[in-house]
Amino acid sequence: MKPVKVGLLGLGTVGTGVVRIVEGNQEDLRSQVGSTISVEKIAVKNPEKARNVVVEQSKLTGDPWDVINDPEIDVIIEVMGGVEKTKEYLLEALENGKHIVTANKDLMALHGAEILAKAQEKQCDVFYEASVAGGIPIIRTLIEGFSSDRIIRIMGIVNGTTNYILTKMSQEGASYEEVLKEAQELGYAESDPTSDVEGLDAARKMAILATLGFRSNVELGDVSVKGISQISSEDIAFAKKLGYEMKLLGIAERNGDQFNISVQPTMVSQSHPLASVNGVFNAVYVHGEAVGETMFYGAGAGEMPTATSVVADLVAVVKNLKLGVNGLKAITPYKPKLLTSDEEVFSKNFILLHVDDKAGVLAQITQVFAEFGVSLASVVQQPNEHNPNAEIIIITHSASKASMQKVLNHFESLEVIRRIKSVYRVEG
Ligand code: NDP
Ligand code: HSE
């Protein structure tokens, strides 16, 4: 088979890893696909910038169209990020009959359906394994490995930056700002880390996983999102004391024909396998009706782990080229999307209240829970020499999101409650 020519859009953290793997593993790759793979052209923002990998200067261009419109290029690897302009590039590349590999979850969560439809029309491949959980092959697993099963639940730690921050805050008592800076220097964070810390990056990944797992077209707006920027060291210390670790957890649950997808800081029981997923590591727990519980673990971000998934997708494209089956394995969601109402979404909850330290306060608080049918698992009053108010820590039994919201709304107007300090979902 003739050599396969690749055009790269982006030579940052991931693009650098892609060049290293394609060049460093050339022999292995050729043995698997039966042809040479070479990176022929690379679009970057600034072609004059010093690079962390040796590339011929003549391959670099500042204009992505030079890559998209090059008739010699067979496969485009998109690792530059961005949404609207990048979508335009990729749709045109497909129009030109080029196959696509991308690590861009922002693009796939927002415009995946349109890009995949265009790919099918043009009989081209679009693979995006690296877009969720970096080096973990979870997308292929959901599409192929679980094609015979019905997924009930997907729970994931799918953002490396926030897991790195929470781990360092928990294990070393480090400050939020300090650790975020480290994660940026290590190439884990997005160019604007707001999408990491506010949960949007994880929400995009959960939309992609839920679409594949539930075979329904789940969109970003279907995911309820809360990030980690409000979590204090005090919250993390409380969690640990009670036997939990704080994690930013993505949860996609199926209840009959209905789905519910969320991303939120969650206190995960230390006995749950997800509690010991630390640092930049990601893990995705998948519960299928037939298979039962499974879990996938690995590096969720960073140059080489992410590039591993990208190049594995490239290998898949080239194998399909050899067989002449590109564009034939696209999965189109076929189930209707019905979202679960807040009355039907259940979880245990942790609530930390600052209250007046006087007789009858606890009775008023427990009365509100009783009124809205929320049963309590434990209530503890915690002395705090730095806080003149009493601190009440409550853990509920499983309660509906709607009932919990009613309780919290009621607390806002209860005079004895000085502050609803923190509320977290509890898992395990
Ligand atoms: P970087 O910011 O490190 O690199 C981006 C690259 O794209 C740079 O080489 C930059 O050029 C180039 N670029 C940006 N805008 C343009 C443009 N308009 N025209 C031409 N080139 C452009 O990003 P990452 O490598 O970290 O991420 C790339 C993609 O991979 C993103 O979609 C990200 O979400 C995804 N991803 C990243 C992971 C990670 O661990 N970093 C993990 C999984 C997915 P220049 O070098 O000149 O600035
Ligand atoms: N910023 C992302 C993360 C990169 O921290 O997980 C991997 O998608």
TrEMBL record:
Cofactor(s) for this UniProt protein: a metal cation
Keywords, in A-Z order: Amino-acid biosynthesis, Methionine biosynthesis, NADP, Oxidoreductase, Threonine biosynthesis
UniProt catalytic activity: L-homoserine + NADP(+) = L-aspartate 4-semialdehyde + NADPH + H(+)
Pathway: Amino-acid biosynthesis; L-methionine biosynthesis via de novo pathway; L-homoserine from L-aspartate: step 3/3; Amino-acid biosynthesis; L-threonine biosynthesis; L-threonine from L-aspartate: step 3/5
InterPro entries linked: ACT-like_dom_sf (IPR045865), ACT_dom (IPR002912), Asp/hSer_DH_NAD-bd (IPR005106), HDH (IPR016204), HDH_cat (IPR001342), HDH_CS (IPR019811), NAD(P)-bd_dom_sf (IPR036291)
An example molecular function term from Gene Ontology annotations: homoserine dehydrogenase activity
UniProt xrefs under Pfam families: ACT (PF01842), Homoserine_dh (PF00742), NAD_binding_3 (PF03447)
Residue ranges occupied by any ACT domain in the UniProt entry: 350-428
Enzyme class: oxidoreductase
Keyword field contains Amino-acid biosynthesis: yes
EC numbers on record: 1.1.1.3
Domain of life: Bacteria
Family under the similarity heading: Belongs to the homoserine dehydrogenase family.
Protein name as annotated: Homoserine dehydrogenase
Source organism of this protein record: Paenibacillus terreus
